[in-house]
Write a structure and sequence with these properties.
Blueprint (H helix, E strand, L loop, with lengths): L3 H13 L2 H20 L8 H6 L14 H28 L8
Helix pairs in contact: 1-4, 2-4
């Protein structure tokens, strides 16, 4: 019998290992890189990666005001969304047959 923490980590690794989740994370990294290169004082370019990581990046509104918190909320939002995308991709690929690993 495995511990609950190990099965949770294994499930997260499987979800992030799907092609759909990896493509989403790559797109988020590219958007964030583009926004950091293009942005200047008063630029709205940083809004694009923030919108790409919605709704999980809404945690920004409860974090203290600091420029690093914006980046933290986008990274957290991208990871949460990638987990959901990966989980959905695994469930849809599995169809009606049960997962032998769970």
């Amino acid at each position: 019998m495995t511990r609950p923490g190990l099965s949770l980590l294994r499930g997260m690794r499987r979800a992030l290992g799907t092609l759909a989740a990896r493509i989403y994370l790559t797109a988020c990294v590219l958007l964030l890189g583009w926004a950091l290169v293009v942005s200047s004082e008063g630029s709205m370019a940083i809004v694009i990666p923030l919108l790409a990581t919605m709704p999980a990046s809404l945690v920004l509104f409860v974090l203290p005001e600091h420029s690093g918190m914006l980046l933290l909320s986008m990274v957290l939002g991208a990871l949460v969304n990638a987990l959901v995308i990966g989980w959905c991709a695994r469930v849809l690929r599995r169809g009606s047959s049960p997962d032998p690993a769970s």
